[in-house]
User: What shape does this take?
Amino acid sequence: MNKWNMLKSVSIKPAKVLIVYQDKRTLTDLKPLLEKEGCLVEEAKDSRSAFVKIHQANCSLVVLEATIPYPDGTPLCSLIKNENELPVIVLAKTDQQMAESFLAGADDCVMIPFSYKEMILRIKAIIRRYSIKKSEAEIELEDLIRFSHLIIEPSAHRILADHIPVKLTLKEYELLSYMARHPNIVLTKEHLFHTVWKQETQTNYRTIDTHIKRIRDKLSKVSVVSRNMIQTIWGIGYILRDV
Assistant: This one.
């Protein structure tokens, strides 16, 4: 399944929504609607209990009233966004509260009173967006080819030796990337040439030696250890080992 199809298949699992409120009506009106949509609802009446719930309940999204500050006066939204990768919807009563909420990092801000149908749609949209973003990150992470001293990022066509970028030509990148996908296996020069260059008629495989030398030289400038991962098997070819 390619990346696009994987993203299209992302579904919104039963979300856990934390409602942080001072006005009881916010909870009593919103909670049953969320539960009807299959959401699990946590509640908190102040900033301290909100942080306890965030860390213990594995919440998917926070809905909070703009009037709830942290004890030192810092907007609660700002603290949540600084410490967690959680989407936050703020309920505001004035234009100033709405503006301050967006400045504090709110993903969305809704003016009270609001349409509960619209509120549910906003919550669903934000949870879906974060689910896709998280899945993209997971897909990119799975796409990495990672060794102790060498990382290859296929999606970016990038090589990192000890976390330092190494600039390779296209063929050098393709050659090293192929070897990294087949570690601890002796790869003959013939096999490497036919696979990476995709030609069948060549009988002189010196170009493989030349490219390997260039790759080693470029790696050694930033990481001797990563350079030594490419080992020569005399008379046969090369092998990439995690040293």
In short: The chain has two domains: 3-143, 146-240. The domain at 146-240 is CATH 1.10.10.10 (Arc Repressor Mutant, subunit A). Confidence is low (pLDDT under 50) at residues 1-12. The longest strand covers residues 16-20.
